[in-house]
Design brief:
Blueprint (H helix, E strand, L loop, with lengths): L3 H12 L10 H8 L2 E5 L3 E3 L2 E5 L3 H17 L9 H19 L2 H4 L7 H8 L3 H23 L3
Parallel strand pairs: 1-3
Antiparallel strand pairs: 2-3
Helix pairs in contact: 3-4, 6-7
Protein name: ImmA/IrrE family metallo-endopeptidase
Organism: Ornithinibacillus hominis
InterPro entries: IrrE_HExxH (IPR010359)
Length: about 150
């Protein structure tokens, strides 16, 4: 059973005709979503523009996942909002990035995925891959416990 966020990411990629990891391309996704993509010394989103910091392809993919959350799911100007609300949006964007960059519906097609698999297939950094694998395994354990309890 998917969470609301996993369903959201699945439907987003389905609507973009993306079903395989090799289709996870920053420029292609930005184009399909009508986002103008630029590169600079810092990362942020402004309107339909996402500016990505010059960095490794892995880091840029992860930053793109974070900024896509702000683009798709957040409103308002963080420069004028209360710190607690800004912190909430940042937490949500960080969490979203794990699911956007390494979608569950793609991850579950890998038999017993490892950190190395996630790094090579989804083009993310080690720490990001490790955390995403932990999230995925925790979900599997939780879902399995529900089944054992008859829920």
């Amino acid at each position: 059973m998917y969470t609301h966020l996993e369903d959201y990411v699945f439907n987003l990629y389905h609507n973009l005709s993306i079903s395989r990891p090799e289709q996870l391309d920053i420029e292609e996704i930005a184009n399909k979503l009508g986002i103008n993509l630029y590169y600079s010394s810092s990362t942020y989103r402004y309107g339909n523009n996402i500016i990505l910091q010059y960095d490794t392809k892995q880091k840029q993919w992860q930053l793109f996942g974070h900024e896509i959350c702000h683009y798709l799911r957040h409103f308002g100007n963080q420069l004028t909002m209360k710190k607690s609300f800004k912190d909430l949006q940042e937490w949500q964007a960080n969490h979203f990035a794990y699911h956007f960059c390494v979608p569950t519906f793609m991850l579950e097609k890998i038999h017993t995925p490892t950190v190395t698999d996630i790094i090579s297939i989804f083009n993310v950094e080690f720490d990001f891959a490790l955390r995403r694998l932990e999230m995925y395994q925790s979900k599997l354990n939780f879902d399995g416990n529900d089944l054992c309890l008859g829920m």
